[in-house]
Specification:
Length: 317
């Protein structure tokens, strides 16, 4: 039989934390019907071997060993694919998230049927102010503004999901931090909850200020997917027309001057107008190709363009 709860934890070079992590999971979830999917993302410090040893005496511990280091999003997706529980919990393997918070979050989710995702908020964050807190604050504000899903802490890995909320979410690149926003596109309701946070005491952090730049790039992808996935012509075509019309106007003006006997061959405006027109035409063409690809994506595989619920949703809190 499938367990009620699946805990998904990506692991990368965390051998110093594994024993305590497994012990704390076992203690926190004692009495619950659960499985723990610890996904070794190509660790080079022996984490995979230690996971196998720990799992040998713990039926609830189900390690997954990836062939190489794919990144946190892919590791998390591997855990989602293997999870069998109706509720899925995610957290980091560095013990900064506290497994003892999980039972409380499960009770809250059970008490609020209108909520699909509980997202942790490390309100009292135990990290370096410049290296972690400042980039995180900038990223959270930017993501909230662009996606419309307002959270204080997108980067907190401690989250609880109803299985149905993840049914249409696939993680690529570094999209793991955007799961609440991605799920919200399909009607999931998200609530933020304050959780514990502890300083890292063992191992090395894999995060740096460079991740803020990656967040911006991924945010552009999320925004495009949420607003223009089924209508790419409006995105590419809109930009294309905005470029092509001024380009055509410039060329028409120069053509009138040419007909009037003036020389226009050496004018920079001629090159500028031609570039604008060509770029505009290319972008409109990309939009048309995008429309064809959307139909190829949905129709041959029978993918639905919309989701239908079995019952009405309770009102939002």
């Amino acid at each position: 039989m499938s367990p009620a709860v699946s805990v998904v934890i990506p692991i990368y070079n965390e051998i110093e934390n594994l024993d305590e992590l497994v012990t704390r999971l076992e203690t926190a979830l004692a009495g619950l019907d659960f499985e723990a999917l610890l996904v070794d993302d190509g660790s080079k410090d022996g984490s995979g071997q230690r996971l196998a040893e720990l799992a040998a005496t713990r039926p609830w511990l189900k390690p997954i060993f990836l062939a190489k280091n794919y990144g946190q999003s892919t590791a998390m997706q591997a855990g989602f694919d293997a999870a069998r529980g109706e509720v899925i919990v995610t957290l980091d393997g560095d013990l900064q998230n506290d497994p003892a918070d999980i039972p409380r979050l499960l009770q809250m989710l059970d008490a609020e049927p209108e909520v699909d995702i509980l997202s942790g908020w490390r309100k009292t964050r135990q990290d370096a102010a410049i290296k972690r807190k400042l980039p995180s604050r900038i990223a959270n504000g930017l993501i909230s503004k662009v996606t419309g899903v307002h959270l204080h802490d997108y980067g907190c890995s401690l989250k609880v999901y109803r299985r149905a909320a993840l049914a249409n979410v696939r993680l690529y690149g570094e999209l793991h931090r955007f799961v609440p926003a991605l799920a919200a596109q399909f009607g999931a309701r998200v609530k933020e909850v304050v959780v514990s946070h502890h300083p890292r005491t063992r191992g090395r952090s894999k995060y740096g200020i460079d991740r803020t730049l990656r967040v911006i790039l991924d945010l552009l992808l999320v925004q495009f997917m949420s607003r223009y996935l089924q209508r790419p012509i409006q995105f590419f075509g809109g930009i294309g027309i905005a470029l092509a019309l001024p380009g055509a106007a410039i060329l028409a003006y120069l053509a009138a001057l040419k007909l009037g006997g003036e020389s226009i061959g050496g004018r920079p405006l001629l090159l500028f107008g031609a570039i604008l027109l060509l770029m505009g035409v290319q972008l409109v063409g990309m939009g048309l190709l995008g429309e064809i690809m959307v139909r190829i994506y949905h129709e041959p595989a029978g993918r639905a363009q919309y989701l239908v619920r079995d019952t009405p949703r309770p009102p939002a809190p």
